[in-house]
Amino acid sequence: MRFSEIYGELGAGYIEAHHKVPVAQLKDGSKTKISDLAALCANCHRIIHKNNLMPVEELAKLLAERTNLQH
Fold this sequence. Notes:
By secondary structure, the chain is an alpha+beta fold.
């Protein structure tokens, strides 16, 4: 989904960042790298947190399977 298609300029360039390792598990003073984050839409981000921090790869696989079923 492209947020700009729905929200116009307000949604251009919008995305959420998800920490692959929960922030609570990070050591004090550790630095977050881009590779530690996953870019997700708000819905996917919420679903991952709702389901006991489901791995991003697991959600991606589930969505790919559902998309293939619908075509």
